[in-house]
Specification:
globular; mainly alpha; Helix-turn-helix transcriptional regulator
């Protein structure tokens, strides 16, 4: 497993335990890699949250393709909230928007577009 994936998995565990805004980057790297290595991969907590949001959106795209919408998640939609989104780097904003557009285009093409309010949940300016 790649270190980035392990860090994302660890962060996801911590978020389930403490909430997205309350995780500490000092805890994320424990048992995975050194803190300096983690900060080479993720510049800060917002960068980590943006990557988790992208991973969630792409996972949801796969679920749309396989007609398994019951298991789609909106846990990391918090990243598109202005409280976090406004503080993302330009690069992270573009990454989130790019993958959000892929996700929403797949959602529009599916028969789920009217059923699930994902556009509103992930709406970014």
């Amino acid at each position: 497993m790649k270190i980035e994936t392990e860090l994302l998995d660890r962060a996801e565990e911590l978020i389930k335990k403490y909430g997205a805004l309350n995780i500490s980057m000092a805890e994320v790297h424990l048992g995975v890699c050194s803190s300096s290595h983690m900060f080479r991969i993720f510049k800060n907590k917002n960068s980590l949250l943006a990557r988790l949001c992208v991973r969630e959106m792409m996972s949801n795209v796969e679920k749309i393709k396989s007609d398994a919408p019951d298991y789609m998640s909106r846990h990391f939609k918090v990243v598109t909230d202005p409280f976090i989104y406004d503080y993302l780097s330009i690069q992270d904003k573009y990454m989130v928007k790019y993958y959000l557009n892929i996700f929403l285009s797949k959602l529009r093409k599916s028969n789920l577009a009217g059923v699930i309010g994902f556009k509103q949940a992930y709406d970014v300016q």
